[in-house]
Specification:
Layout lengths: L1 H18 L3 H9 L8 H9 L4 H13 L5 H17 L5 E6 L4 E12 L12 E11 L2 E11 L7 E2 L5 E2 L3 E3 L2 E5 L5
Antiparallel strand pairs: 1-2, 2-3, 3-4, 4-8, 5-6, 7-8
Helix pairs in contact: 3-4
């Protein structure tokens, strides 16, 4: 029995080690439901592979024991996020609720950061969108803040307060998403 468990653990971890992605993140890719906040733990574990193996192991273990949102919740959250980035004014809030899974989510567009000579895109704004995301599952609340910059504007590598480059957390649906914790 122990040998079976070790073989199972080996194959499970090796599939993740080869791709750097968890099964929930692969499923999100498959259905194009990649809102960074609802896939946060998986994306954070994936990015840790680029930092240090020990950091990846800690974050992957934390992600593995946490309960994941179902794919329908990830798709609902992604849908309102993309809608909000393209069509909503600063201060607008969009939300979804799934009573069956006891989950919900909100996206609030905080502000648009205008660059010099930005190119207008379909929502009529010219710049990066700062937004917050609130997710609730079984009473547990998760808050995240991101900066999303449209690909039409081109993108640059942002620097943190120490001058180190901040790579995008995710590139998806024509947007570059940056984890706001690196801008503190």
């Amino acid at each position: 029995m122990r040998l079976f468990f070790l073989l199972f653990l080996f194959f499970f971890l090796s599939s993740c080690l080869l791709t750097g992605e968890t099964s929930s993140l692969r499923e999100s890719h498959k259905y194009a439901c990649l809102a960074p906040s609802i896939n946060y733990r998986s994306l954070d574990a994936k990015h840790s592979t680029q930092i240090h193996l020990v950091a990846w192991a800690k974050k992957y273990a934390a992600q593995a024991v946490s309960s994941e949102f179902k794919i329908e919740d990830r798709c609902s959250h992604t849908k309102i996020l993309i809608n909000g980035l393209y069509t909503q004014n600063d201060g607008s809030t969009l939300s979804w609720i799934n009573d069956r899974n006891r989950t919900s989510g909100k996206i609030k567009i905080l502000r648009t950061i205008y660059g010099t000579g930005g190119v207008s895109i379909s929502g009529g704004f010219r710049g990066c969108r700062e937004y917050s995301s609130r997710l609730t599952k079984n009473g547990e609340v998760l808050d995240h803040k991101f900066l999303a910059c449209p690909g039409e504007l081109g993108w640059g590598v942002f620097d943190d307060s120490s001058g180190f480059p901040i790579p995008p957390h995710l590139v998806f649906a024509g947007w570059y998403f940056y984890d706001y914790r690196f801008f503190k």
